[in-house]
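Lecture notes, continued. The same structure-token format from the folding unit now serves as the input rather than the output. Read the line below as a description of shape only.
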């Protein structure tokens, strides 16, 4: 796969990526390297990375627990203190090796330590490869509320090694697929069509689909890096999806949902609202629901859950002047931002999902 060059950094793939990483480390002459990982990627991915790094720079490994629960201010505080204790300075670099939690958290820690040090992302999950590690969004959660604290700060470079996907459980692969499905729906119907049945796909096919998904996100972000308009379209399915994810995270009676599982539900709900408010095809909405449910199954959301989920919408990052703003579709590949939706319609959307 050919290197993708953005306005601020480059994305390197597979074997060529480590050559680029070593060249960068040699050129910048960092004082120290810190490798941020979780307990899983420390076992499954960091040894391979270390075997491919060719540098005499001293490195330390910073390990966190896996999962969304680690994406909080207490973990940041511990990492900032450790960086200080281990002698990190403004010429140090953090290499984030992990999924979206690690790249979001690590980017935020790096961007705020000593007013900002360099960081490099090595995404190891499908979700991080096609979405979380790209575009410069870094941040942490505020309790169960997703990504409430953060800054936009771009990495020095990104290493995408798809061999790391072999370490993932199927549920994590499925979670990442939701962001790829979203890219197809908001940007390119032909790409959406390619994703509908992956049962016969080869490794090369998957690499090509990952590459295309990264290109889609890159093209959107470059046109609107600070999310004033077009970049908001990347939140399709996320307004209700994030609320559902937060609700299931904080509710002890609910089974925790992975990010992509919640976004898949959010896409179905957004499609219903798109039919109601934007003239989106009802037949396509029904077809998309069937395809997504075939992949993700059905999650039980009771009527008693509807109101507390809707209450969480007031914390959505796209809100302006007290309005809850949705991204909806006029057609596949034709999104519309800043759509205001009535609560009654949201309740109808939940019933559509449940049907």
């Amino acid at each position: 796969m050919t290197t993708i060059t953005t306005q601020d950094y480059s994305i390197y793939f597979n074997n060529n990526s480590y050559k680029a990483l070593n060249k960068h480390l040699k050129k910048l002459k960092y004082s120290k390297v810190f490798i941020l990982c979780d307990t899983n990627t420390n076992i499954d991915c960091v040894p391979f990375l270390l075997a491919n790094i060719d540098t005499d720079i001293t490195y330390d490994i910073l390990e966190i627990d896996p999962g969304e629960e680690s994406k909080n201010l207490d973990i940041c505080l511990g990492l900032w203190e450790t960086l200080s204790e281990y002698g990190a300075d403004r010429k140090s670099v953090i290499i984030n090796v992990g999924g979206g939690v690690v790249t979001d958290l690590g980017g935020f820690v790096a961007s705020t330590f000593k007013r900002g040090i360099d960081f490099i992302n090595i995404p190891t999950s499908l979700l991080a490869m096609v979405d979380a590690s790209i575009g410069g969004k870094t941040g942490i959660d505020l309790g169960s509320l997703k990504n409430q604290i953060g800054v936009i700060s771009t990495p020095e470079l990104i290493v995408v090694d798809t061999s790391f996907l072999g370490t993932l459980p199927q549920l994590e692969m499925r979670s990442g697929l939701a962001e790829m499905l979203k890219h197809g729906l908001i940007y390119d119907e032909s790409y959406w069509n390619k994703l509908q049945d992956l049962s016969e796909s080869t490794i090369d096919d998957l690499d090509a689909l990952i590459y295309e998904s990264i290109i889609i996100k890159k093209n959107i972000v470059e046109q609107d890096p600070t999310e004033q308009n077009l970049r908001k379209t990347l939140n399709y399915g996320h307004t209700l999806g994030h609320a559902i994810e937060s609700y299931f995270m904080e509710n002890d009676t609910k089974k925790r949902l992975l990010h992509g599982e919640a976004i898949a539900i959010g896409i179905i709900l957004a499609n219903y609202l798109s039919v109601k408010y934007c003239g989106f095809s009802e037949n396509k909405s029904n077809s998309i629901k069937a395809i997504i449910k075939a992949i993700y199954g059905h999650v039980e959301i009771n009527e008693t859950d509807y109101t507390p989920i809707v209450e969480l919408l007031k914390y959505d990052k796209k809100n302006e002047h007290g309005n809850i703003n949705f991204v909806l579709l006029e057609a596949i590949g034709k999104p519309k931002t800043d759509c205001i939706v009535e609560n009654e319609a949201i309740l109808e959307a939940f019933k559509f999902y449940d049907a």
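Point for the exam: The CA atoms of residues 129 and 156 lie 15 Å apart.
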